[in-house]
Amino acid sequence: MEQAAKHLLEIRGLMKQYGNKNVLNGMKFYVDRGEVLGFLGPNGAGKSTTIRLITGIEAVDQGKILFEGREINENLKSLQQSLGIVPQEIALYNDLSAEQNVSFFCSLYGVRGKGLKERTKEALEFVGLWEHRKERPGKFSGGMKRRLNIACSIAHSPEILIMDEPTVGIDPQSRNHILSAIKELNRRGTTVIYVSHYMEEIDALCSRLVIADQGAVILDCDKETLKREYEKQGISSLEDIFLSITGSSLRDEE
Ligand code: ADP
Fold first, then answer.
1. How confident is the model at residue 5, as a pLDDT?
2. CA 149 centroid distance within chain
3. Theoretical Cys-Cys bridge with 63: which of 13, 132, 137, 231, CB 3.0 to 4.6 Å?
């Protein structure tokens, strides 16, 4: 009988070098089905590089990425089908309508016909942009573009959603909309890896935190346990906890 995979996604000892620079130095963490994992670290910690390696866009120098217990080079197609990425940089086609953008990205996962129409509608409704479906994103506010970007990433119903700072520079209304949408997606069963510099978002969304620095994980902890530990020392905000662990403030680095 096949043994059940321990973790949905597991990263083991990733190494990555650009030129002479070791950007990843043994990056190691996992995410379990149904979790919202906060992936944190100062700028340059290697978070975006790790995400690129998970997507298979770039090759790993050393180490392993396992999806459902199988190495991704044996299982890349299956991981890519199951993965939704909301990149830091907004990636939209300004000469296509909002609806055509979502439809295009969803079709890359092999969704066709009636299913494509339905999923496109569902994703646009989900981010609150259905009324704007005929408009081109060039006219959208920053927050609307980010919401459309999210719709493009979730329309194929990914099992794991990786969001790399999805709320940078947006209005509070769009931010709240995005946070509620992530909670709802998770409630429906999507596993989320969430990268953000905003600790109040991390606090509101995540159950476990992985903090990276200089290409490796320096802390992997249940959020409430971490808060209780630091509370004993009189440190109550996640922001101050992060400062105490890494020696640098996230805010200063924006
Ligand atoms: P984070 O997302 O945590 O801010 P990154 O993964 O973007 O960190 O970057 C980690 C380090 O790798 C940084 O010092 C960055 O300058 C460097 N880096 C990232 N991508 C490249 C690349 N394609 N070529 C050279 N250096 C890179």
1. 55
2. 12
3. 13
User: From ligand 1's centre to the CA of 141, what distance in Å?
Assistant: 28
Euclidean distance between the first and final Cα of the chain, in Å? 50
Distance CA 65, CA 78 (A): 13
Kindly give the distance from the C-alpha atom of residue 44 to the centroid of ligand 1, in angstroms, as a whole number.
6
Tokens of 180: 């509620």
Residue type, 193: I
Q: Which residues form ligand 1's pocket by a CB distance below 6 Å? A: 18, 23, 41, 43-49
pLDDT digits (tens, 9 = 90+) for 161-214: 999 999 888 888 888 988 999 999 999 999 999 999 899 999 999 999 999 999
| d(C-alpha 207, C-alpha 36), whole Å | 6
β-bridge pairing 36-40 and 191-195? parallel
Q: Look at residue 17 and tell me whether its pLDDT is greater than 90.
A: yes
Report the nearest atom of ligand 1 relative to the CA of 43: 4
CA-based diameter of the chain, in Å? 58
> Cα–Cα distance between 189 and 187 in angstroms, integer?
5
Q: What 3-state DSSP class applies to 48?
A: helix
User: What are the structure tokens assigned to 251, written together?
Assistant: 């805010």
Here the tokens at position 148 are 């459309």
- Measure the CA–CA gap between 218 and 193, rounded to whole angstroms: 17
Under the phi-then-psi rule, with left for phi > 0, alpha for psi from -120 to 50, and beta for the rest, what region is 95?
A: alpha
d(CA 237, CA 96): 43
